[in-house]
Write a structure and sequence with these properties.
The structure is a single chain. The chain is mainly alpha-helical. The protein folds into 2 domains: 10-96, Orthogonal Bundle (Multidrug-efflux Transporter Regulator, Chain: A, Domain 2), CATH 1.10.1660.10; 104-159, no CATH class. The chain has helices at residues 13-20, 24-32, 52-64, 69-77, 87-96, 98-114, 129-132, 155-159, and strands spanning 10-12, 39-40, 46-49. The chain has a 3-stranded antiparallel sheet with strand order 1-3-2. It is elongated. The termini are far apart.
């Protein structure tokens, strides 16, 4: 399908799907979930405002980052209905997730950098575990990988 002309204020569902990089069924799902909206023509065909492309882009990016659709819906609900969102509207929306995304980045870096050593999970199977977590002492702090959850001092794993 050809890309929609740049001077068109409304897009068909097929044009929005093609330009947005999603299936038509995904757009129908997004609409049922209250993430995007369309109007119906006299022939009952969906028409989307062109600024819906940015909403679709935000939904796709948020999904890739692991942001639940309920949070995306709540954020999109803060955008104006009667007009295209401005840069300021989008900046306000993106600030909403900044702290959460910073924490996710930190956890992913921690997983990348520290998972090869003792993470305090109680497995005691890696040679460093017996030194860093003798007799699974970190298990007294609770279930799960205590060091990756941020409950145990990270430098204990390095000191042994």
């Amino acid at each position: 399908m050809n890309q929609p002309r740049w001077d068109r204020g409304e897009l068909t569902v097929g044009e929005l799907a093609a330009r947005g990089g999603v299936a038509v069924s995904a757009l129908h799902f997004y609409e049922r979930q209250g993430l995007i909206a369309s109007r119906r023509t006299s022939g009952n065909q969906r028409r989307y405002r062109r600024d819906t492309l940015r909403r679709v882009a935000l939904i796709r990016i948020a999904q890739r980052a692991g942001i639940p659709l309920a949070e995306v819906r709540a954020a999109l609900a803060e955008l104006p209905d009667g007009r295209a969102p401005t840069r300021r509207d989008w900046e306000r929306l993106s600030r909403r997730w900044q702290d959460d995304l910073d924490q996710r980045i930190r956890r992913l870096q921690q997983l990348r950098d520290e998972f090869t050593g003792c993470i305090g999970c109680g497995c005691l199977s890696i040679d460093l575990c017996a030194l860093a977590n003798p007799h699974d002492q970190l298990g007294a702090q609770g279930a799960g990988p205590r060091r990756l959850l941020g409950d145990a001092p990270a430098d204990q794993a390095r000191r042994g």
